[in-house]
Structure formats: structure tokens, C-alpha cells
UniProtKB/TrEMBL annotation:
Lineage top rank: taxon: Bacteria
All residue ranges annotated as the HTH asnC-type domain in the record: 6-67
SUPFAM superfamilies noted in UniProt: Dimeric alpha+beta barrel, Winged helix' DNA-binding domain
Organism taxonomic ancestry: Bacteria, Pseudomonadati, Pseudomonadota, Betaproteobacteria, Burkholderiales
Annotated organism of origin: Paraburkholderia susongensis
Listed SMART domains: HTH_ASNC
Recorded GO MF terms: sequence-specific DNA binding
Gene Ontology cellular component terms for the protein in this record: cytosol
InterPro entries per the UniProt record, alphabetical: ArsR-like_HTH, AsnC-type_HTH_dom, Dimeric_a/b-barrel, Tscrpt_reg_AsnC-like, Tscrpt_reg_AsnC/Lrp_C, WH-like_DNA-bd_sf, WH_DNA-bd_sf
Keywords of this entry: DNA-binding, Transcription, Transcription regulation
Entry protein name: Transcriptional regulator, AsnC family
Gene Ontology BP term (one): response to amino acid
């Protein structure tokens, strides 16, 4: 189903679940102004149609002792499919790399990385990131503070 086929109620269900993925069907139905059975049917359809990928908890970086967030531009000297495939496969296996985007512009990839502190981040750069296939240069931008955390996708 194309996104244009989502009605106001479908969008309200998706918005409510982005704010609280553990919301019960009863509370969700009340929030969007439906009775429980039609709400459950709509939710099942939204899941089956792929609008909801998964449910997960948002963990606190601070509570977990991950005080450093870095956005890293990675550059390759040689651009071949095999190297990119190996790089992407290895990045997938590193938990502290929260996201990886293949981008246009001066960098080949932009990564979001977390670390306990600057020493931990430096060791990760030296011992892991710079050793990945294809990497010839990296440029880090350290987050000083998060102004707007990930709050979900726009649904308007």
C-alpha cells in the first residue's frame, strides 16, 4: 500500500506507536478514537503492509556509560564493489556503529559511532575503524550535545 493510501487514523496509529511502542491495543484504540477490534485489525494491516518494521526499546546512552557520539566521514581511495561489500558487511557486525550511510559528496560513508569516552573512541578508531577494508581516511565530528534526538519519522 503506498503511503498516500494511509488515512488520518492509520497515521494516528503510527504516530502513537512511535511515541510508545509498548502501548496496549486498548490504549491505542482510545488514543486514536476506535474500538479495540477495528484498531487491532488496522494495526495488523499496517504491520503486514510493512509500515511497521519492528518494535524496540530506546536505551539511554548516558545510563549505559556511552558519553561520546561521533559522526565519521569515511573515504576510500579505490571504489570497487568487492571492497564496498566487505566494508559494509564488517560495519554491520560492529555494535558501536549505530548507523552507516553510503553518501554522495566528499565522503563515501557517514557513520554514527558511540564510545565510553575519548580514550575509548581513539582506541576504536586506531584498532578497528581504520583497519576496515577500503578505508583510507576518516574525519570525525564529535557531538557536543544532542539538540533533537531521533523522534520518529514524519507522518504528515
Amino acid at each position: 500500500m503506498p503511503a498516500d493510501d494511509l488515512d488520518k487514523t492509520d497515521r494516528a496509529i503510527l504516530a502513537a506507536l512511535q511515541n510508545d511502542g509498548r502501548m496496549s491495543n486498548a490504549r491505542l484504540a482510545e488514543t486514536v478514537g476506535l474500538s479495540e477490534t477495528p484498531c487491532a485489525r488496522r494495526l495488523k494491516r499496517l504491520e503486514n503492509d510493512g509500515y511497521i518494521d519492528q518494535y524496540r526499546a530506546m536505551l539511554s546512552r548516558t545510563a549505559l556509560g556511552l558519553g561520546v557520539v561521533a559522526f565519521v566521514h569515511v573515504r576510500f581511495a579505490v571504489h570497487d564493489r568487492a571492497t564496498a561489500t566487505r566494508f559494509e558487511r564488517e560495519v554491520q557486525a560492529i555494535p558501536r556503529i549505530l548507523s552507516c550511510h553510503n553518501v554522495s559528496g566528499s565522503a563515501d560513508y557517514v557513520l554514527q559511532i558511540v564510545a565510553r569516552d575519548l580514550d575509548d573512541y581513539g582506541a576504536f578508531m586506531r584498532d578497528e575503524l581504520r583497519c576496515l577494508p577500503g578505508v583510507t581516511s576518516v574525519e570525525s565530528a564529535l557531538s557536543l550535545r544532542e539538540v533533537k534526538p531521533y523522534g520518529g519519522l514524519p507522518l504528515s
